[in-house]
TrEMBL record:
Name of this chain's protein: Glycoside hydrolase family 1 protein
Superkingdom assignment: Bacteria
Catalytic residues of the enzyme: E387 (nucleophile)
InterPro entries in UniProt: GH, GH_1_N_CS, Glyco_hydro_1, Glyco_hydro_1_AS
PROSITE patterns the record matches: GLYCOSYL_HYDROL_F1_1, GLYCOSYL_HYDROL_F1_2
GO biological process: carbohydrate catabolic process
GO cellular component, one term: cytosol
Species whose genome carries this gene: Vagococcus allomyrinae
Similarity comment: family membership: Belongs to the glycosyl hydrolase 1 family.
GO-annotated molecular function: beta-glucosidase activity
Pfam families, alphabetized: Glyco_hydro_1
Signal peptide stretch: none
Length: 491
């Protein structure tokens, strides 16, 4: 769709940045905090790059005032962060750790002092280890009740201070990497267990939303989903059908539950045929239907491309290239698992039109517009872009970091977001990933995302000095202008 002129961003548009507790806070045992599954998993040999973990991370726990001061200087309108469940409730249930709860209240108050809108994420992957040990984590239905109790504590303490709440962050990623590929905790490779844990997460999400609407009816809540549109490799109807299957399996399986309160029929039938559909108990579907989000958070990095499944098309043609490796935003099978739903649905292939990052992620700004359009049309909810960014190897020299590649990446994506708004999509705000550099879950400190460079590496914490990158000053200007300058972002 061509527009002669693009609509301006809304006057109250929330320009922001994001983070996650385990990746930035450190202080893993401070002030009564209990261990999380990431505290445990990251110390297993060979699971993370050079054995890196979040024991110190970038020490945001002790430096949050300094970091918020940098946010204020940049002019951020909003900041998305997550709460470490085990910092607030060390055992995941029962006693509340006042010191941990007070930390997040101080964080929110400091953000408010600088007129930065806090966006609080309730769950960003760091389940208390006690719940993993006691109930087998998300495989036990008892964890649903524990999550509701944890949410109640936060709603009652911070409900009057936080307008936007995120329930689950990238449920599709945490379940696939944690329960299918053994790349995240709980370090499981069992597709059936993955779908059961995912169902319990759906129930926990719905329970939290229902409770929130009861306790904090004037505020807003919704999940954040790692969304990527699926494309057909060719106009061949078989590839188009494969892309439809991929869209349903990679995206609708979660989003339909969040927004419509029901599982999509096509994928459910396929999982039933394979014997891996989750077990439903009486009242489950009623709960899912009762809880509708106020907005939908979208984390966008890239999508995927599909060709006809390998059973009906035995080999990939010479001009095609099969997708290789593991990607958290594609439900790409690891090796040959006994129960692989994709086999009959589609095969993932590389998109010949897209370049890639150093970590093999496709760069697709137009796909961002496609994503926003699809989600808006299908679910008719306001969208909050809760993550979008570029992981790269940044080099600091003489107190400066020149990251023009990040500026180009963000500018192109922001431009496509503005086009989507002009198309008619309602977007509340945009949180770049991330504000400071942080611990990449599996890639240590080599893979950097931030506007602010943190001077540390895998072997040496150094002084954790904060250094403003070129992208910091660029984004500062974007915020001041409420968008890109004319012509910026067009290559």
């Amino acid at each position: 769709m061509y527009h002669k002129e693009l609509d301006p961003f809304p006057a109250n548009f929330l320009w922001g940045a994001a983070s996650a507790a385990y990746q930035i806070e450190g202080a893993w045992q401070a002030d009564g905090k209990g261990p999380s599954i990431w505290d445990t998993f990251s110390k297993l040999p060979g699971k993370t790059y050079l054995g890196t973990n979040g024991d110190v991370a970038v020490d945001h726990y002790h430096r949050f005032r300094e970091d918020i001061q940098l946010m204020a200087e940049m002019g951020l309108k909003t900041y998305r962060f997550s709460v470490a469940w085990s910092r607030v409730m060390p055992d995941g249930e029962g006693a509340v750790n006042e010191a941990g709860l007070a930390f997040y209240e101080e964080l929110v108050d400091e953000l408010r002092r600088y007129q930065i809108e806090p966006v609080l994420t309730l769950y960003h992957w760091d389940l208390p280890q006690a719940l993993q040990d006691k109930y087998n984590g998300w495989e036990g239905r008892e964890t649903i009740a524990a999550f509701k109790s944890y949410c109640r504590v936060l709603f009652e303490r911070l409900g009057s201070k936080v307008t936007y709440w995120v329930t689950m962050n990238e449920q599709n990623v945490l379940t696939s990497l944690g329960y299918r590929w053994e790349l995240h905790p709980p370090n499981v490779a069992d597709t059936k267990r993955m779908f059961q844990a995912n169902h319990h997460l759906n129930l926990a999400n719905a329970d939290a939303i229902a409770l929130f609407h009861e306790l904090v009816p004037t505020r807003k809540i919704g999940p954040s989903f790692g969304y990527g549109p699926m494309y057909p490799l060719r106009a061949d109807p078989n590839d188009v059908l494969a892309a439809e299957n991929g869209e349903a399996f990679n995206n609708s399986w979660w989003l339909d539950v969040y927004c419509k309160g029901k599982y999509p029929k096509v994928i459910w039938k396929q999982l039933e045929a394979l014997g891996i559909a989750p077990q439903l108990l009486e009242g489950d579907l009623e709960l899912l239907k009762r809880a509708k989000p106020d907005f939908l958070g979208i984390n966008y990095y890239h999508g995927g491309t599909a060709a006809q499944n390998t059973l009906e098309k035995e080999r990939i043609a010479s001009q095609e290239k099969a997708f290789s490796g593991i990607d958290p935003y594609l439900m790409q099978p690891k090796d040959q698992q006994a129960q692989t739903p994709e086999t009959v649905l589609f095969q993932s292939v590389e998109n010949p039109y897209l370049e890639k990052t150093d970590w093999g992620w496709e760069i697709d700004p137009v796909g961002f517009r496609v994503a926003l359009r699809r989600v808006s049309d299908r679910y008719d909810l306001p969208i909050f872009v809760t993550e979008n960014g570029l992981g790269a190897i940044d080099l600091e020299k003489d107190g400066k970091v020149h990251d023009s590649y990040r500026i180009d990446y963000l500018a192109q994506h922001i431009l496509e977001m503005q086009k989507a708004i002009t198309d008619g999509v309602t977007v509340i705000g945009y949180c770049a990933w991330s504000f400071t550099d942080l611990l990449s879950w599996l890639n240590g400190y080599k893979k950097r995302y931030g506007f602010v460079y943190v001077d540390r590496d895998e072997e040496d914490e150094k002084e954790l000095t904060r250094i403003k990158k070129d992208s910091y000053y660029w984004y500062q200007e974007v915020i001041q202008n409420n968008g890109l300058r004319k012509g910026e972002g067009i290559s």
